[in-house]
């Protein structure tokens, strides 16, 4: 996988954890190993500007996804073709507040948001109840599998 993580925010973030999670998520979704993904972390002002420009909504948000080649999940026998998956833009300041509300770490929130953003890049949505159930189920499976893998890695 070609995954680039660029932290343009003033918040220190474990970029290697985001890289490991992204690699794991893309493998789970059977995305071609030559696919390209960019993860950019921005401050609230930059995120607000993107949120207004692309979603026509005020204020900063937690995550935005910008798909490029409209790749979709593959299967073990037929992985997604190589291509540009797109960009996931995260706002650590917004994630920090959400993490406090949820009772977990900012890193855990950023891992969740990264997974969520990647699934959007792969065409998943949560506008309808059945879509939400599918997307959030896959998101949960990826996060649990990644947490188990991380635990084994540290052991």
Automatic annotation (TrEMBL):
It is an enzyme of class 3 (hydrolase). GO terms for molecular function: metalloendopeptidase activity; RNA endonuclease activity; zinc ion binding. PROSITE patterns: UPF0054. Binds 1 zinc ion. GO terms for cellular component: cytoplasm. Its cofactor is Zn(2+). It is found in: Cytoplasm. GO terms for biological process: rRNA processing. Gene3D superfamilies: Metalloproteases ('zincins'), catalytic domain (3.40.390.30). It holds the Pfam family YbeY. Its main location: cytoplasm. Belongs to the endoribonuclease YbeY family. Single strand-specific metallo-endoribonuclease involved in late-stage 70S ribosome quality control and in maturation of the 3' terminus of the 16S rRNA. PANTHER family: ENDORIBONUCLEASE YBEY, CHLOROPLASTIC. This is Endoribonuclease YbeY. The lineage of its organism: Bacteria, Bacillati, Actinomycetota, Actinomycetes, Micrococcales.
């Amino acid at each position: 996988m070609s995954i680039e993580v660029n932290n343009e925010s003033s918040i220190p973030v474990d970029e290697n954890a985001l890289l490991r999670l992204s690699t794991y998520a893309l493998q789970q979704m059977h995305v071609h190993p030559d696919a390209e993904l960019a993860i950019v972390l921005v401050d609230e002002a930059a995120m607000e500007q993107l949120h207004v420009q692309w979603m026509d909504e005020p204020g900063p948000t937690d995550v935005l996804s910008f798909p490029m080649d409209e790749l979709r999940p593959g299967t073990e026998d037929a992985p997604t073709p190589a291509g540009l998956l797109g960009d996931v833009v995260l706002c650590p300041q917004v994630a920090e507040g959400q993490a406090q509300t949820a009772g977990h770490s900012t890193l855990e929130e950023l891992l969740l948001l990264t997974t969520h953003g990647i699934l959007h890049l792969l065409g998943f949505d949560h506008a309808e109840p059945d879509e939400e159930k599918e997307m959030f189920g896959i998101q949960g499976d990826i996060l649990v599998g990644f947490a188990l893998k991380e635990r084994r890695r540290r052991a």
